[in-house]
Design a protein that fits this description.
The chain has about 280 residues and is an alpha/beta fold. It has a single domain, classed as 3-Layer(aba) Sandwich (Rossmann fold). Helices cover about 40% and strands about 20% of the residues. It has 8 helices and 8 strands, in the order αβαβαββαββααβααβ. Strands 1, 2, 3, 4, 5, 6, 7 and 8 form an 8-stranded mixed beta sheet that branches. Helix 3 links the parallel strand 2 and strand 3. Helix 1 packs across helix 7, helix 4 packs across helix 6 and helix 5 crosses helix 8. The relative contact order is 0.16.
Length: about 280
């Protein structure tokens, strides 16, 4: 299977990071299906790059008549997600190993909703339209394709966190991800509406979400673990790419730990949902 995930999808620490990130992301959205046009209770739903399966399990629990499936390239994460579905007795949730960069093993017009979150670290910039063409193919006429992406990993009072994030943006841009013209962000949200229109979607709509992870917030712990795990995993690739020396990266990381633990620390993580409808046949 084709795998271009920017981090190791079979790493246990990465799975833990995604569990933390999933929790705060879904809460910020107001729930797994919040903001979307109402789906029928018997809708067929697919989540791309589902990771440990949190979004699928939340949607399946909230809508027991829906069939909610998740796919991911990681065998470890799919095994974990299937185990959680069995433990929670969610018979309407299912998971399978599949790469979104290859033709999807689903029939045309299979799903009422195809959902995808944070593909900017998975899909190279030249492959986005191909991936969305496949999404369009498997979506039922009148069904929805929804993308959730973020341009910034964080906006905060920490200079070290800002510098580490910038190192990540530069690294990901050099590896072929995102559309930033200057390497100061992931540069993805402004492209999404055009992609959806290109593959044929109509009635494009969007919605912003913001997670406050300031020192006195509930989300602080989840976002701290997200950054801590992510920066540790990115250290060697960023150093090997010549974007930072080991000494520079370690100095920024230690300063990040100090600044994010200050009582005066303030931070937000903005993201955007955008969705479109597959045209009905004439």
């Amino acid at each position: 299977m084709t795998n271009t995930y920017i981090l190791d999808p079979e790493d246990g620490a990465e799975m833990a990071r995604l569990i933390h990130l999933d929790r705060v992301s879904t809460q910020a959205m107001g729930g797994p299906l919040a903001g979307l046009p109402e789906l029928t209770e018997t809708a067929q739903v697919l989540d791309l790059c589902c990771g440990p399966g949190g979004w699928v399990l939340d949607a399946a629990f909230a809508h027991p008549e829906m069939e909610v499936a998740g796919i991911d390239v990681s065998h470890m994460m799919i095994d974990y997600a299937n185990a959680r579905a069995r433990t929670q007795q969610l018979r309407n949730a299912s998971f399978g190993v599949m790469s979104i960069l290859d033709p999807l093993d689903f029939s045309d017009n299979s799903f009422d909703l195809v959902n995808a979150r944070f593909l900017v670290g998975v899909v190279h910039r030249e492959k986005w339209v191909d991936v969305l063409h496949e999404c369009y193919r498997i979506t039922k006429p009148g069904g929805l394709i929804r993308l959730i992406e973020a341009d910034f990993a964080a906006l905060s009072s920490s200079q070290a966190l800002a510098n580490l994030c910038r190192k990540y943006y530069q690294f990901s841009q050099a590896r072929g991800y995102g559309f930033s013209p200057d390497g100061r962000s992931s540069g993805i949200t402004h492209m999404l509406g055009g992609f959806l229109r290109t593959v044929g979607c109509k009635n494009i709509q969007s919605r912003m979400h913001v997670v406050d992870f300031s020192a006195d917030s509930e989300a602080w712990v989840d976002l701290f673990h997200n950054f801590d795990i992510g920066f540790k995993a990115l250290r060697l690739p960023i150093v090997n790419a010549g974007i930072a020396t080991p000494e520079e990266f370690d100095r920024l990381y230690q300063q990040f730990l100090i600044e994010m633990h200050l009582k005066t620390f303030r931070g937000v993580w903005p993201s955007m949902s955008i969705w479109g409808t597959k045209s009905l046949p004439i």
